[in-house]
Structures are given as structure tokens and as C-alpha cells.
Specification:
Strand content: 15-25%
Structural class: alpha+beta
Helix content: 40-55%
Strand order of the largest sheet: 6-5-4-3-7
Largest sheet: 5 strands, antiparallel
Shape: flat
Number of helices: 7
């Protein structure tokens, strides 16, 4: 992975992100030569050829993986922007994977040194007692008496230290580059991932973790034992983000208009396959006859997790704009009724 051509020599140099993007653009232009009638947009069938085996049979698993990776549009085409974004995403995943492997190797090395220390210490005690003719049980008893005395002095600190080591060595709840949030185990989680206080993992070792606060870019270091009993939400390992919109509709909206709005949202999802996965629900949440509106909840699943918060929020803004336009076209958008103002002219002669 240290090679300047991690994707092969045919793809081109990709030792940094800029070169990877330039190489992806050149590859896209070369792939267009296999479809001269495509009008500068690559048909997915060109990439789909990778799903055929040597006997010409289609491997469905590989085909589905290609579709999931490149996400062609409803015309089964892949634009240059979509192709380059996919290559850039794979490149970033590769770099994070490389950093995580290197970091895991360091952690495993430290664990090996700790286990070797205890093993060789015990071995030395056994050999020493055997050579000198000492009773190993009396030696063990004296050592255990010393350990009991030390446990009262530093017991809580050692307990936290061991909890932190087990957190990283056994559980491994995060890797380098992951976006995480920390909260007490019994805390109520916010359903909107964009409103949570999140951190990027900068560095990890057996004893401490270096985090960067997303909101302010501040870097801090925390003991692993301090977060061992916390609830750690890893957005990088979470599935696609669930985005919820609270909409206000006119109380006169009919069932037919509601169904037409739902169909419009489904069409919007089909037109943006690289952004949205599916519609989770569209349902009424409240009816207010006094204010003459109907509250509705629309929830969709994004293709990306809350690890890519910026992309999810931009997509949510575009979706909200589309929903308002669709409701206006259907005539069901809510308009707040004007309040009656009692204007009374004052008599000039009165005091």
C-alpha cells in the first residue's frame, strides 16, 4: 500500500488525493472509448463487464457489488463526477485502512511486550526458586502480600488502566478517522446525528486516545479508562443515516394529494440513487384544527452514514426544498392564517 499505484499501473499514479482524481478522470475518458455512442456519459454495461467470469457467465454477487459501489442513475449511466467521487471514496477508505493497520500493529506490539514481561518474570521466579532450592509457595506468598498492599494504594487507578487496555485490545470500538460521539450509557440519544457532539479519532494507543472536536477543530487527549463505561456511537460503522423532515400541510389536503406527494418523493429518490436509498415512512403526526394545519413526518435513508455529515445535511436541504416545491404544486402547502388586529381610532378630544 506504500506503492504510488495502489489501484494498478493501468489506473495511474495515486500516491496522493489530487493524483488519484486526475487518474480517475483519465480512466473515465478511456472507458468512454468502449461506448462511442454514449454521448460522453459512461453506460454501466462497460463497468458491468467486470462481473463476467472466464466462461462468460454473470457473477451476480460481483454485479451487485459494482452497482452498490458506483450507483448508476435511472438511465443506467455513470457521469464523470460520479465515477471520480467513487474512486476518491475508495482511495480515502484505502488510506484510512492503511493507517488503521499500522496503528493496530503498534498496539499488538505493546500487548506482546506486556505479555512477554509477565511470562518471563514468572519463568525467572520458577527457575530461580528451583536453582536456589527455595520453596516457590513461600516466595509466591511474599510477593502476593506485597501485591495486596499495593492494591489498596493504587487499586482504583490500576482498575481504570486495565479497563482502558481491554477497551482497545478487545472491544476496539473505533479506528483512526472514525467520527464518534461519547455519552453516558443511560443517556437519551438524539435521533438527529447532526446535532450530536462528535469527535474524529486522531490517534489510539493502549492507554489514551487523541480526539479532534468536529465543531471547533480542537484536539484533546483522553484516558481510555475514562471512556470504557461510556456509550460510544461509531458513525463510520453505522448504516445509512436516517433523515427526518417535519412538514406542515394544509388541513384541506386530501388523501389523494398525500399519495401524489409520496409518489413524487419516491420519484425523487429514483432520480438520485447515489444520494438516497429508500423512504422509511411518511405519516401524519398531528392535526391542529385551530391553526388549520396537518403535521407530517417524512423519513428517508441516505446512502452515506453520519460519518459524512456534510453530504447528508446538503442532501437534506435539497430534499426539503423539493418537498416545499412539490407541496406548492399540489396546493397543500401550509400558509399561516393572518391574525385579526383590532384597530380603534382614538378621539382627538379625549384625554
Amino acid at each position: 500500500m506504500d506503492d504510488s499505484h495502489p489501484f494498478s499501473a493501468s489506473f495511474g499514479p495515486s500516491d496522493n488525493r489530487d493524483r488519484c482524481i486526475k487518474s480517475a478522470q483519465k480512466v473515465y475518458q478511456q472507458l468512454l472509448k468502449f461506448a462511442p455512442e454514449s454521448d460522453e456519459i459512461l453506460p454501466f454495461e462497460v463497468l458491468g463487464a467486470l462481473a463476467y467470469d472466464e466462461e462468460g457467465n454473470v457473477l451476480e454477487t460481483k454485479k451487485q457489488a459494482l452497482v452498490k459501489l458506483f450507483r448508476p442513475d435511472r438511465h443506467n449511466q455513470i457521469t464523470m463526477l460520479a465515477f471520480v467521487q467513487t474512486c476518491d471514496w475508495v482511495y480515502r477508505k484505502l488510506r484510512f485502512f492503511r493507517a488503521s493497520v499500522a496503528n493496530s500493529s503498534l498496539i499488538d506490539g505493546v500487548l506482546e511486550q506486556i505479555f512477554n514481561f509477565f511470562f518471563y518474570t514468572a519463568l525467572a521466579l520458577v527457575i530461580t526458586s528451583g536453582v536456589m532450592g527455595l520453596n516457590p509457595w513461600s516466595l509466591l506468598l511474599s510477593v502476593s502480600t506485597l501485591l495486596v498492599s499495593l492494591s489498596f494504594a493504587v487499586g482504583s487507578s490500576v482498575s481504570k488502566l486495565i479497563e482502558g487496555i481491554l477497551l482497545i485490545a478487545v472491544r476496539r470500538p473505533f479506528d483512526l478517522g472514525d467520527r464518534i460521539s461519547l455519552s453516558p450509557a443511560d443517556a437519551v440519544n438524539n435521533p438527529d446525528g447532526s446535532l450530536q457532539q462528535t469527535w474524529f479519532v486522531e490517534d489510539v494507543n493502549l492507554f489514551s486516545t487523541t480526539l479532534r472536536f468536529v465543531a471547533t477543530n480542537e484536539v484533546s487527549t483522553i484516558n481510555n479508562g475514562a471512556i470504557a463505561n461510556s456509550r460510544i456511537v461509531n458513525f463510520a460503522r453505522s448504516p445509512g443515516a436516517l433523515v427526518t423532515l417535519d412538514l406542515l400541510l394544509d388541513i384541506k389536503a386530501t388523501q389523494e394529494q398525500m399519495l401524489m406527494f409520496r409518489k413524487a418523493v419516491k420519484k425523487y429518490i429514483r432520480d438520485n440513487p447515489r444520494t438516497w436509498s429508500s423512504i422509511i415512512h411518511f405519516r401524519t403526526t398531528q392535526i391542529n384544527p385551530d391553526m388549520e394545519f396537518v403535521g407530517a413526518s417524512l423519513r428517508l435513508q441516505h446512502m452515506k452514514s453520519w460519518q459524512e455529515t456534510t453530504q447528508v445535511l446538503n442532501a437534506r436541504g435539497n430534499l426539503h426544498k423539493f418537498c416545499i416545491q412539490a407541496m406548492e404544486e399540489l396546493g397543500i402547502v401550509y400558509s399561516s392564517p393572518g391574525s385579526t388586529v383590532n384597530v380603534k381610532m382614538r378621539d382627538p378630544g379625549s384625554r
